Every structure is written in C-alpha cells, then in structure tokens.
Amino acid sequence: MAKSVNKVILLGNVGKDPEIKATASGIAVATFSIATSERFKDKTGNWQDRTEWHNLVAYQRTAEIVRDYVKKGSKLYIEGRLQTSSWDDKTTGQKKYKTEIIVNDLSLLSGRGESGEAGSSGSGASYSKSNTASFDQRGGAEDYAQSTEITDDDIPF
How far apart are CA 54 and CA 33, in angstroms? Predict the structure, then answer.
C-alpha cells in the first residue's frame, strides 16, 4: 500500500474561548475554533479578504494547555490531522457529517495578555505530545514567555 499523509498546518486566531470537558474516564477534551485569512484581488482589481473557520479538538495534556493558556484572540500555530465523523440525525433521519482537526502540536504565539494583537512580540511557547516533560520543566508558557521577552536591542536591523 502506498504511503498516505493526513496533516494540517494552521496559523490563526482563536474565535472564542475554548470549551473544556472531560470524558467519563477523566480525559480532558478542549474544543475551539481558529480563523485563518487570505487576501486576494477580485476580477475588478479590488482587494478582498476571505476568512476560513476551522474546528479543532485537543485531548489530554494538550487540552490542559489550551484550558490554561488559550483564550479568544490568541494567535496559535497548530499541527494536526483531519478527522470526519458521521451520524444519523434523530429528527430527520439524514446522515450528518462533521470534520474537525485533531491537534497534535500547538504553539502559543501571543505574548502574555496580548490576545493576538497585531505587532506582538509573541512568546513562542509550544507544546506537542512528544514534549510534555520539556514543557513542565519550563514552568509553563507564561514563565517561559517572561524569560524570552524580545526587546528592540535584540532586533538586528
């Protein structure tokens, strides 16, 4: 069988505060959406903006990071995979579909208290399933952001 790839990469802003729930077995689940935008010229030569909304789901430690550090307006870099689920609507009997992005890696790009404002320096704190220990050793994204704050003296131009 040929190799296949299911990978999504997004850079955008959170549309509203994430919803955090837990499964019956106690696993944390965060659901939230982010917006990505593209700018293009239409047929008449005028610039147009198109915004696309993406539904995301994070589990376990990633969901806890989302709960603690992500809020409306936060700028995020996300890596994940597409997952589509289907069910039969109880009232109409129609088959319904929902496509979501399952988050594997998450980077917090907004600085502390910035909520994704333009021109932010960004903290660059990141989390992925594979770096749980390194995230915990740093003491959290907020402490990491303080220790790596960028000033005008750090910019080479």
Answer: 5
